[in-house]
Amino acid sequence: MAELNIKLTVAYDGTAYHGWANQPGLKTIHGTLVECFSRLFGRKVGICGASRTDAGVHALGQTANICIDTPIPVANMQSAMNSYLPKDIAVTSVEVAPRGFDPINHATGKHYRYTLNTAKVRPVHSINYCWHYPYTLDTDKMDRAGRLMRCTHDFRTFASAKDHRRDSIRTLSRVDVRREGDWIYIDVEGNRFMYNMVRNIAGTLVDIGRGRWVPEDITEMLEARDRRCAGQLAPPQGLCLVKVYY
Amino acid sequence: MAELNIKLTVAYDGTAYHGWANQPGLKTIHGTLVECFSRLFGRKVGICGASRTDAGVHALGQTANICIDTPIPVANMQSAMNSYLPKDIAVTSVEVAPRGFDPINHATGKHYRYTLNTAKVRPVHSINYCWHYPYTLDTDKMDRAGRLMRCTHDFRTFASAKDHRRDSIRTLSRVDVRREGDWIYIDVEGNRFMYNMVRNIAGTLVDIGRGRWVPEDITEMLEARDRRCAGQLAPPQGLCLVKVYY
User: Fold this and answer.
1) Residue B23 pLDDT grade (very low, low, confident, very high; cuts 50, 70, 90)
2) How many helices (H) and strands (E) does chain A have?
3) What is B4-97's CATH number?
4) Mutation choice for A interface testing from B89, B121, B127 by most A CBs within 10 A
5) Catalytic: B207?
6) ipTM for the complex?
7) CA-CA distance, A133 to A54, in Å (whole number)?
């Protein structure tokens, strides 16, 4: 049998997990996939994921790969994997990738969605999938601020102060804010992201929506290259990794 | 202060609870409400709910009442209650009811919704709010069968064998089955319900949808007055008490 490089798309409810990345003694998405797939294939498998999502963050389209030679036909692999995984994680597609496919370095972009609910009473059936923010938000202002973040900028201001990567130039192709009844969706697409970047953008847009700043302040914030100039960090459960582009 | 009879509408995610009704040593919706409201009002309060939902069953519009004299103004009561409740339970309305209002005996009807998902891959973010049934279901047949259950019948066949109430004549005004993409919704409205009645109806409609029986078999099932003549019991997490009518 030849070793195959298998590209997986994975959806998960991050509520019960300490994020994607392995941490000794804690239940993580990556650790759960490794454990379940190792049982399925009868030996320890290595898995590499495109995005290290934080504790409580969700995914519809996380991408990962495993290199494996197995007698299990590719056509049966998805349902075999799903029968070994817990109900809050599911493989939504399996494809054979080129030999050198690398889910991190070959990614050309990612789509994240941040979800808010502004109803007076918390939505009990969606409370783990949104930021419940029961106040008035001006979504037109939020959307105008989002537009000012588009294109290529230095996003140091919107990265966690803990992110020490030198290069903080990123390109966002989309920062859209739209309302549907009590729900507000912030869709962010870009080439690469710094640590906490989408949650810092979402929190800052919320601060603008409630009037702490005007949309045009975004330009000055970007120029400051200082985390202290941006708004609050939005909580993790509102964030979902929708898709990774290749 | 005069004692008020307060009518509450309550929404909850039943996932983490052993149903509505109090059970010693187990976390229940009723027990949680009693505990939280007793802390809020500074003394033990009694709560009566319209429907004893099972473990894992959800509600958008459970109705309950408490009789209380308190200095807390009615206008502030909802937000006070919600600040004491856990995030998976919320009071969605508070009103002063007539002195003799009784949520069980004054109810004129209830609306339940049963939700199925037929996607090949389980919907990880909704897995606690539906029956994931990844097979083909003929919803036209299910809807036709539902129509045959409408109006007044003896529903003994669709009650749990454990329900020993003599009177099993009930009136259903609505048993609708509709599909939206991978989702199927079964809406059932009626005057009163026997134990497990909606879940037995949902399970039987699923059996009809996959071809075990034809819709017209419903008539014979009703006539049999025997639980063994109906289909499977649908799992609890697909069921939601939408509204109680008065």
Assistant:
1) confident
2) 5, 10
3) 3.30.70.580
4) B121
5) no
6) 0.87
7) 21
